[in-house]
Amino acid sequence: MHTTIPLFPLNTVLFPGGVLPLRIFEPRYLDMVSQCLRTDCGIGVVLIRQGQEVGQAAETCNVGTLCKIRYWNRRPDGMLGVTLEGQQRFRILSHNISKDQSVQAEVELLPDVTSFPLPEPQHYLARILKNILGQLEPPYSTMKQQLDDADWVVSRLIELLPLDLSLKQRLLMFDSAQKKLAEIDEILKSRDK
C-alpha cells in the first residue's frame, strides 16, 4: 500500500512497537505535529544519512517507521513534548521538500515482521531488556512489556542499546525477526567474551 506522509528525519532508529519522546521547537515540526493531531495522520521517523536534525532538510535512509502521536504536552520551557509510537515500517518511493524544508514522502508500507515466542536460549535478552526498562522513565517504564515476544524484545534492545546507527538501520530493514534475534544474540555474546 502507498501513502503520503510527513517525514521527521532524526539521528535515531525506531522500530514498530517502540516509543520515542521528543522535544519539538522548530516551526516546521510544530506545524507538522499540529496537522497530524488535527487529521490523525502518521509521521515517518527516518534516520538521517547526511545533514542535521535542524536547518536544511537532511538526506535520509530509505526505510523508516510510520508513527502515531501517542501523547503530547506543552512543556514549561515552551517546547512541545511529543511521544511517538512506531506502527509500521515503510520504504520511501519519492519525496518533496517544501520552502520551509519540511519533507513529504510517498511511501510503500512494508509487511509486519512475523514474530514468535522468545526461545529459551535467548531468555537472557528479555532479562537484559527488563533491567534496562526498569531504569528508565516514562514512556519506556510504562510500556506494555511483551517479554515473551522475540521481535518485541529484540527490537527494543536494538533501539535502547548503544549500537552504531548504521547497524540499527540495517536491522530495521530485516524482514525476519529470526535474523534480527540471531544478530543481536551474536553481538551480545561476543561482547561477553
UniProtKB/TrEMBL annotation:
SMART domains: LON. InterPro entries: Lon_prtase_N, Lon_prtase_N_sf, PUA-like_sf. Residues 2-192 form the Lon N-terminal domain. Pfam families: LON_substr_bdg. This is Lon N-terminal domain-containing protein. It comes from Thiohalophilus thiocyanatoxydans.
